[in-house]
Amino acid sequence: MKKYRKDFPILKRKINGKRLVYLDSAATSQKPIQVINAIANFYKTFNANIHRSIHTLGEEATKAYEEAREAVASFINAEHKEEVIFVRNTTEALNIAAFGLRNIVKGKLLLTEMEHHSNLLPWQQLAKLKHLELDFISFDKDGYLDEPEEKLKGASVLAITQASNVLGTINPIKKITEKAKEYGTIVVVDGAQSVPHMPVDVQKLGIDMLAFSAHKMLGPTGIGVLYAKKELLEKMEPVMFGSEMIKEVSFTEATWNELPYKFEYGTPHIAGAVGFKAAIDYLQEVGMRNVRKHDERITTYALKRLKNIVSIIGPKKAEDRSGLIAFTMGDIHPHDIATILNEEGIAIRSGHHCAMPLHRKLGIQASARASFYLYTIKEDVDALVEGLKKVREVFER
Ligand code: C6P
């Protein structure tokens, strides 16, 4: 969506004398001037700690922080704003989800084979601590998840990504939560790659818990969200202790604050919350349906242009994928691909993308990945294609 590019100052940069072609939005998105200004304005005009001080600045900062919570709640259609817990990022949210459930989980924890390490390691650790079974839903050669029905039996939790950061696959969350309900399984969704890219309505999708990061959706780094249904949060235990997350404290005992503060500890990223709200305002102005439509359009174009040059990982159809394409080029190392592309001003990601078991299942060590967002244009994809032709030339010499 060309018209939004003017809002992103970084896109005017030159890298190695070439126009910056930023194709690494799945790692972190770029930030519009509206977000940058909102953060600067916080520090310039109402910087103070929150929920503590009676003075004007403290009250203004607290109000802005709580307005950000309301904006997030409405963005994902949470029923109550106390269901939105501010954390640092998706990784922290998933750790709090797992260990917050430590007195509720039993039997089996069910995951998928396409999880990012952030939605694998917390559950691995919890399984060890509580002596639980870990089981995995597999995926087929095209990157589609197998039917979960059989595996759901006996699973107290299903932790699943809505969109894979390597395969690009968008999983059918609504269908899965409906099945999970029949077995009484709590569904924890990793929304790191979905919430920034498509409308996500937690009530419509029947999601029990959802984790995502502001930095992948035009917002700043250092702030993210754990959403969970109120009745679940009430049963869960806090994971981090201290500061304002308490109601009553003695030398030997403590009781917990009301929601959401029971799960928020220490001085939070207040400027981050302010920037996050500006990002949500921006995305709502664009419209999440339009963001998704643009992703699909640019992915369709990229799939068509890339299919004869590289081996594409994941589903063939853009409608089943989020806006990213991971690929390999014979035995050319992905780091070499990324290095040569960087010389052309093109930023992609290479490596295991924090999904080592997934890569191993695909029979590879690493992949290269181009990822898109609302500011990506067809010319960026064209530049990538030309850059990849240069990669080929270098290795055929
Ligand atoms: N994936 C990528 O380049 P954090 O870093 O905590 O904000 O997000 C973690 C995370 C969790 N789940 C999924 C599906 C993700 O894609 C990520 C982040 C980045 O793919 C950095 S590894």
Residue fraction in strands: 15-25%
The outline comes out as globular
Helix fraction by DSSP (H/I, runs of at least 4): 25-40%
Reading off the top of the CATH hierarchy, the class of the largest domain is best stated as Alpha Beta
Helix-strand topology string: EEEHHEHEHEHEHEHEEHEEHHEEHEEHEH
The SS-based structural class is: alpha/beta
* Discrete helix count: 13
- The assembly state of the depicted protein chains is single chain
Calculate Rg over CA atoms: 22 Å
Measure the end-to-end span: 38 Å
CATH superfamily grouping of the largest domain: Type I PLP-dependent aspartate aminotransferase-like (Major domain)
The biggest sheet, with number of strands, parallel, antiparallel or mixed sense and barrel status, is: 7 strands, mixed
| CATH-derived architecture of the largest domain | 3-Layer(aba) Sandwich
Task: List the strand order in the largest sheet.
Answer: 4-10-9-8-7-5-6
Which spans of ≥5 residues are poorly predicted at pLDDT below 50? none
Name every ligand kind in the structure.
ligand C6P
* Average pLDDT level: 97
Number of domains: 2
Q: Tell me the number of strands.
A: 17
